[in-house]
Amino acid sequence: GANPPPPSPKPTPRRCHHHCRRRRARPLEAQPPGDTTVVSAAMICAISGEVPEDPVLSTNSGLLFERRLIQRYIEDHGKCPVTKEELAMDDLVTVKTNKIPKPRPLQAASVPGLLGMFQNEWDALMLSNFALEQQLHTARQELSHALYQHDAACRVIARLKKERDESRTLLAQAERQIPISAAGPAPVAAVTNGKRGFHRSNMSKANFFVCFALILFPGYTALEDEVGPDGKKIRPGINPVIIDELTECNSVLSAQRKKRQVPPSLAPIDALERYTQISSHPLHKTNKPGILSIDIHHSKDIIATGGIDTNAVLFDRPSGQVLCTLTDHSKKITSLKFVPRDELLITGSADKTVRVWQGNEDGSYGCRHTMRDHGAEVEAVTVHASQKYFATASRDSTWCFYDISTGSCLTQVGEASGQDGYTSAAFHPDGLILGTGTSEGVIKIWDVKSQARVAKFEGEVGHVGTVTAMSFSENGYFLATAALDGVKLWDLRKLRNFRTLSPYDPDTPTSSVEFDFSGSYIAVAGSDIRVYQVANVKTEWNLVKTLPDLSGTGKVTSVKFGADAKYVAVGSMDHNLRVFGLPGDEQMEEAKSESAAQ
């Protein structure tokens, strides 16, 4: 009779709850096999771009990494590879994933899909092969270039070793290879026997460096902008080959001089006595008048003049025409010289430069070399007898020896105690002696081979005032120097002054002095032009002719004899070149008489 217990309620809500959960999960379970879109978007390593095997998550940036890759990066850098923020291993959280194997991709489930995969792989292989071929070609080119460099280096090393071995046989002549830029006083005997001591104390650091370079490598050539420890430019020096060339030239010219006779075509004294102005040519500018230097190309009878107007003018005397005007200098031209062998003209200027000009067939000249080795005005240019070298003297108290063909300065010579600049210079006709004059009236004689000073005239035996000009006689014995106190004549055999010509008053300087090529006459220029007959040491040098200064300035600056002293070219402080000689009719009669005599 007891009432039965009421039936338990049906768990409908609970079943509904589980049913709903299963329904929500069904879409994931129903995901087709091989569809990895969701996994690929989420499970990608930020470093490798691949699905990681042991993924870890950065709590700082939320990026996913392969554990082994991010661990190595943190050990090396201590930062996140993407955000570059500080990152430690403690900031990484392991991501737990399902261990179910990765299903096969959809493309591999059909033949067309496989063909597409194979095509993609083939394309990638071809692109990779093309890139490898390009890299191989580049590597071959680099290897070829490296082999060429190696071969060239081996050749250079072999050549240097050969030169080093050859130089060891020249140690006895090492002192000749030292470019002495600060030569001190040396006894005459020390140079005449051709030997000088090899002492470190006689050289500056720069010269000592060059000495070692020349001993080890005779072919060594210092660059123009190469400087030594003392800050001075390094010069290659006058090497033994050049010294032998200078010595040979000296021997040949000395032998020829002993046999040389006065040419019968030389103008006689009575002809010089009748010289008068035969022509005048306005070659330079009138606003900057003044001709400072003259030289003559004897074989072509071309006269070159250098003026205050910064121009050099080449004048053809027979035709009376100007061949060309050289205008590259920026200041007055102080000295110029012809080099007839190669049809060159060398000019020195107050702009501190020296220029070598090359003559052309049409009579024009072009600048071939420009030298900027001096630090002050270039006052003198003189050409060696071989016509392969020349020297310049400057107010910077140095003189330079140049190779004409290359325009390179082989050596620059000065004295440590030298304060007065050079104002004149001239080579001896044999080429082994160079004379220089200074602004203080000092005359210095140099041995070109060793660049050592072998004689010095100063004080009572020297000049008063600036040495304006100097000229060696072709007989090889006499040197004439000009200054405020006149012209001094020196006997080079005894190194003494044997005569002084004082044609002008004490306030009138002698501006120029010049021997003719035969050594028979000497011309002196100051307030006028005076021509003397050359005699010997004991005989008086007689005045032959006085030519007036027709410029009206009272200052003749330069004088030059023509071939066989047939005329005298004169430059003054006006803009005209004047030529003195025999008048036309007398000149023709003189030529006829010479022909009859021959």
CATH class of the largest domain: Mainly Beta
Poorly predicted spans: 12-41, 179-207, 216-224
Indicate the CATH topology of the largest domain: Methylamine Dehydrogenase, Chain H
Strand order of the largest sheet: 4-31-30-29
Helix content: 10-25%
Q: Overall mean pLDDT score?
A: 82
Count of the separate structural domains: 2
- The structure class reads alpha+beta
- Assembly state: single chain
Number of helices: 9
CATH superfamily placement of the largest domain: YVTN repeat-like/Quinoprotein amine dehydrogenase
Globular, elongated, flat, extended or rod-shaped: what is the shape?
A: elongated
The number of strands is: 31
Per CATH, which architecture of the largest domain? Answer: 7 Propeller
**Which radius of gyration do the C-alpha atoms yield?**
46 Å
Strand content: 25-35%
| Span between termini | 187 Å
Largest sheet: 4 strands, antiparallel
Write a brief structural summary.
The protein is an alpha+beta fold and 598 residues long. The chain is built from 9 helices and 31 strands. It has helices at residues 12-29, 37-42, 67-77, 111-167, 188-192, 205-216, 240-259, 269-272, 584-597, and strands at residues 55-58, 64-66, 92-94, 276-282, 291-297, 302-307, 312-316, 321-326, 333-339, 344-349, 354-359, 365-371, 378-383, 389-394, 398-403, 408-414, 422-427, 433-438, 443-447, 452-457, 469-472, 478-483, 486-491, 496-501, 512-515, 521-525, 529-533, 543-547, 556-561, 567-572, 576-581.
